[in-house]
Design brief:
Number of helices: 0
Number of strands: 11
Helix content: under 10%
CATH class: Mainly Beta
Distance between the termini: 9 Å
Structural class: mainly beta
CATH architecture: 3-layer Sandwich
Number of domains: 1
CATH topology: Rieske Iron-sulfur Protein
């Protein structure tokens, strides 16, 4: 059974913001792009490492709707988790999002 889980207040996720949240044993990367919030698992399916930030905790490259893995350059579309550039071949899990009562929520 799926449930909506609150991650943060909408005011904490303005356009251009990204953050990572731990939910039920997984890390979820959340991006506000142009006022729309997207969420994917913070996991590069190519090497099993994080996507949203590099090892120095700097934001990974975001090109329009594509997050680029900071290690090998694989890219994923944050809107649906699809691989858009190799070396990754497996899509990353994505989550439905909504703003409810001023909160950013994901469907887990």
């Amino acid at each position: 059974m799926s449930n909506w889980v609150t991650l943060c207040r909408e005011s904490e996720m303005p356009p251009g913001q990204r953050d990572v949240f731990g939910v039920d044993g997984r890390w979820i990367a959340v991006f506000n792009i142009g006022g729309t919030v997207y969420a994917i698992e913070d996991l590069c399916t190519h090497d099993g490492n994080v996507l949203a930030f590099d090892e120095r905790d700097q934001p990974s490259k975001l090109i329009e709707f594509e997050i680029e893995c900071p290690r090998h350059g694989a890219r994923f579309d944050v809107r649906d988790g699809k691989v858009t550039r190799r070396p990754a071949e497996v899509d990353v899990p994505w989550f439905k999002t909504r703003i409810q009562g001023g909160n950013v929520q994901v469907l887990i």
